[in-house]
């Protein structure tokens, strides 16, 4: 019997709605899954054939501790995604080093760019935390300086309003094979409720998006049980990478009938 940990966090609201779906699919494939908190001091990671990192949604405030845990767990079981991937992927400065087009990004409050509208966000973040959208250049610069004063790296980008028209496209790859893709709602548009943010619709990616997503994955060596490639378009229509989610992405598994089976199959291939 194969036993895998489904790595989660101490979630008071129980809002990981993909967990039961995944565990049921594993069970059908003969994989016993157990939900375990990444920071559970009692957890014996060596007892698992693999530990699959999923809803670790509290790592942002405790990144160093989380990365240290990943290396520890990864030394006694098969951690997916691997610790080295998690270490690199939890700080968005990785975007600077990828050989693919990304959203134009300025990385400090100095030499401040001049754009119509700004997005300013920290390099270590998730769920648009500490992220602002403003057309006030001084306010944008002040937010960037505040992040720096806190010892964080700011990311300053032009606001790309196509996220409200065509929308952001997320491509889901399991063991490097495309499973499905969705169109996501704009998180920084006014009047977005929590429910709007979670909503997405299945979408067929365009050829130029597929081409870019494959290039993005080719930049990352090693086992990738799951990868979510988030793409947007510049005003001239070119697709660019906004984020590569290799740590704790929501996988939009209920949006495509085949998705959870694709994930389970990919896990079987990597075990
Ligand atoms: N430059 C941008 N232009 C338009 N929308 C943006 C921009 N940057 C971020 N957003 C919005 O904020 C969301 C979160 O930003 P993202 O960079 O993906 O960080 P994270 O998901 O880790 O918080 C995106 O999904 C998108 O909706
Ligand atoms: Mg994102």
From TrEMBL:
Entries under InterPro entries matching the protein: DcsG_Biosynth_Enzyme
Protein name per UniProt: ATP-grasp domain-containing protein
């Amino acid at each position: 019997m194969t036993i895998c940990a489904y790595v989660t966090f101490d979630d008071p609201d129980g809002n990981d709605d993909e967990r039961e779906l995944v565990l049921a699919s594993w069970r059908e494939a003969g994989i016993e899954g157990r939900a375990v908190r990444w920071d559970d001091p009692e957890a014996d990671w060596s007892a698992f054939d693999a530990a699959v990192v999923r809803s670790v949604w509290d790592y942002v405030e405790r990144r160093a501790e989380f990365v240290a845990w990943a290396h520890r767990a990864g030394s006694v079981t098969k951690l997916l995604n691997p610790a080295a991937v998690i270490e690199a992927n939890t700080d968005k400065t990785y975007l600077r080093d990828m050989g693919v087009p990304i959203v134009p990004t300025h990385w400090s409050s100095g030499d401040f760019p001049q754009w119509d509208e700004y997005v300013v966000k920290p390099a270590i973040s998730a769920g648009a935390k500490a992220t602002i959208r403003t057309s006030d250049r001084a306010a944008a610069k002040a937010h960037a300086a505040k992040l720096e004063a806190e010892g964080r790296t700011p990311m300053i980008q032009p606001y790309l309003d196509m996220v409200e028209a065509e929308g952001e496209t997320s491509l889901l790859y399991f063991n490097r094979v495309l499973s499905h893709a969705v169109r996501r709602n704009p998180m920084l548009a006014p009047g977005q409720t929590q429910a709007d943010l979670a909503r997405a619709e299945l979408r067929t990616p365009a050829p130029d998006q597929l081409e870019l997503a494959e290039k993005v994955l080719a930049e990352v060596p090693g086992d990738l049980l799951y990868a979510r490639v988030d793409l947007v378009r510049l005003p001239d229509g070119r697709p660019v990478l906004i984020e590569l989610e290799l740590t704790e992405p929501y996988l939009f598994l209920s949006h495509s009938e085949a998705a959870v089976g694709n994930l389970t199959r990919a896990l079987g291939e990597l075990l």
